[in-house]
Design goal:
Blueprint lengths: L5 H9 L2 E4 L9 H12 L8 H10 L3 H9 L6 H17 L9 H10 L6 E4 L4 H10 L7 E2 L11 H10 L6 E5 L2 H9 L3 E6 L12 E4 L4 H9 L1
Parallel strand pairs: 1-2, 1-4, 2-3, 4-5, 5-6
Length: 228
């Protein structure tokens, strides 16, 4: 078996907490988010190009407000589009159309079984009820989930700080695994250790990352190696 990069193994040995992003890290949900936004915008005669979605929505987190500003769109009811998008996405979640990333199910099963002896949680902009639905439909036990409802979204650090408070993880010794600039910027802003998870639909250079791994499937072997 190929060993994990020494820097991530050393970081895991020193860490006292893990926070996992969900979309693009645990769940392969970004294509479905993109679809739901396009369906919500269709009555307005609008759509979002795939590359624009990956960069501005998924990674930078500028959302519909940024979309309207970039394209000089007038008259769009942003809140109505958001409500429609949330309804569409929730329906897709309930129908089991959100797959997990390769290796994510095994990682969560092993984390739930105690392979990592310190606290951990999922910390995401996505509402916790949707995350729990996706995990339940994949027959996974629900861990501690801190979703974005009622909290400032990433790149603000509020969600990560709430998760750290709920788990007792000290930020300066907590690894935050995320595939997007907004999540890694949130980690840095909150005093956490940002780890870029590569291997998703977009590959961007993210200066906020201190460490990186090649896909979430590589985390479990690294945890096992760190515990050896």
């Amino acid at each position: 078996m190929q060993s994990s990069p020494p820097d991530i193994v050393s970081a895991l040995r020193a860490a006292r907490g893990i926070l996992l992003d969900f979309d693009g890290v645990i769940a392969d949900s970004e294509p479905v988010y993109h679809r739901s936004y396009c369906e919500a915008l269709a009555p307005w005669g609008l759509s979002i190009e795939q590359e624009e979605y990956w960069l501005h929505f998924s990674s930078l987190g500028t959302g519909l407000e940024g979309f309207v500003e970039r394209h000089g769109i007038a008259g769009l009811d942003i809140e109505e589009v958001k409500r429609t998008q949330r309804r569409i996405y929730a329906g897709l979640c309930a129908r089991g159309e959100i797959p997990l990333m390769p290796g994510a199910a095994e990682l969560l099963e092993e984390l739930n079984a105690g392979v990592w002896r310190h606290p951990w949680a999922i910390a995401s902009n996505t509402d916790s009820a949707l995350i729990e639905t996706i995990l339940s439909l994949n027959s996974l036990r629900i861990p501690l989930v801190v979703g974005g409802s009622g909290l400032a979204p990433k790149p603000a650090p509020d969600i990560l700080l709430a998760a750290a408070g709920a788990t007792g993880c000290p930020p300066e010794r907590t690894l935050v695994f995320d595939d997007a600039w907004k999540g890694l910027a949130a980690a840095r802003a909150g005093g956490f250790i940002p780890v870029l998870v590569r291997g998703g639909l977009y590959r961007v250079i993210v200066s906020e990352a201190v460490l990186e791994i090649d896909g979430i499937a590589s985390l479990l072997p690294a945890i096992r190696e760190a515990a050896a």
